[in-house]
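Q: Entry one of two.
A:
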Amino acid sequence: HVIGFGCPALLSQPLSVATKPYVTSVVADADFIPRMSGATLVNLLLDVRNFDYRTMAERDVEQALRELQSRFSSPPSSPAAVLSDAANNAKIKSKSKLAFHIDEDDIRTVMGYVHRGLEKVATTTTTTTTATLSSSSLAVDHQAAKADDNTPVYEGEEKKEVPKKMDLVLFPPGECIHFYRDGSGISGTYVPCNFFNEIDIARTMIDDHLISSGYRKIFLNLMRDFHKDDHFSFESKGFDGPK
């Protein structure tokens, strides 16, 4: 019986199911290798292309400005204190280089720049990505159409269709076990091979594929939870594996 850790997607779904009696694939959380194939990479590019990040980006910038406003800007003065504030302004500015005021007009002005900048970047990125995907689709369709004499294809012809996601044909082999972080520890479950049908974008997607930062750490935390011993180590149990 073969046990693989972080096996790549290399078999069709029927072949993967057929190898269950003698192959087990163990996948650590967001490990990207078992999820990576030509189809998932293309689908990831399409997801990134279609994701509208502008609203979230504007929200983050505005939150940062509000935080600066609350930390460094003085609250509005009462009419009786206006003259006193004006008299003290020169002294405050001379004592602190950080003293400045952010009002609502300033925030609206900055957000206007941010909005226009994001619109420009988004338009440029979308145009470039669409052109690349359309060129790739055109090249594939052009080659496929050569075999069909009844389908004329012209070099440089523009395709107006929006690129569609690709169907997956490759999956990790055998019986698949997925260990994942559940927020308080490590959990594991049997999953079908087509569970890994897209690349999981996460900060740990590369580290999870490595031994020291991925599988060893996952199993160490799993054993500490199982034994209810925060000091459990493989070395103390006589295992001197890769570190």
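Q: Entry two of two.
A:
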Amino acid sequence: MKVTRRYFSIHGNSRFTDDWINDMKVLFRLPHTHINSPSSLISVKGSSRNIAVDKMSKRRKAAVLVPICNRNGLASILFTVRTQTVSTHKGQVSFPGGHRNVIDGSTCVIETAVDCALRETYEELGSNIGNIRIIGECEEVPAVTGTLVTPVIGFIEEDVMNFEHFNPSLDEVDRVFTRSIDFLLDPSNCGKETYDNKVHGRVTMPVFYDKSSNGKEKIWGLTAFILRAVLDKAIVPTKPSDCGGTKVNR
């Protein structure tokens, strides 16, 4: 179908609306209740729970939520900064998420990527953030640790305002911040950097800057890689042409 609704006003007011969210879901064909086939997974003992592992590659399975939201009426994406006490990626900007749990060890049935992303988000940010409407799942991507990560895009229905109603986990979350869609799409706020990767050697990845944070809220690594894909494949294609986007035929 041809998307013609105006999600962003001609004055540049980039607020997410119900129409925008509902039409974005058309981009995602995968069922939201997908559970991996038991034959493709095994379970391993984690520190406090059984963690799902892909049987063929022996890689752990995880999911993250890409939380799109309105902040004071402005379409945005929410990020967390990890504490210095977490086991990996200390002090880095990330999306809420974690390893997928095994629900039934006898059959190796694991929680869905959606269930994992929602569980981890509420654990990290608190249940007071309100309802999260699932838009769709993205393709699985490998983290530098080898974990296979499924990004899940979800819309926080209540305006996050200034996070007064949030109750972040003191163990996992140092702080919470957002970046507006307009900011993230501004070419002056993003670029590319090259890193040494243990698996793939030298790789070039997207990066998003914010000079006002003195580098403390730099979005890079897997988080930036996922963010770039969400912007390019979900946000930009549905942005109307009269607001700098393109109409999409589906």
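A: Comment on entry two: Residues 46 and 107 are 17 Å apart (CA to CA). The chain has a mean pLDDT of 78.
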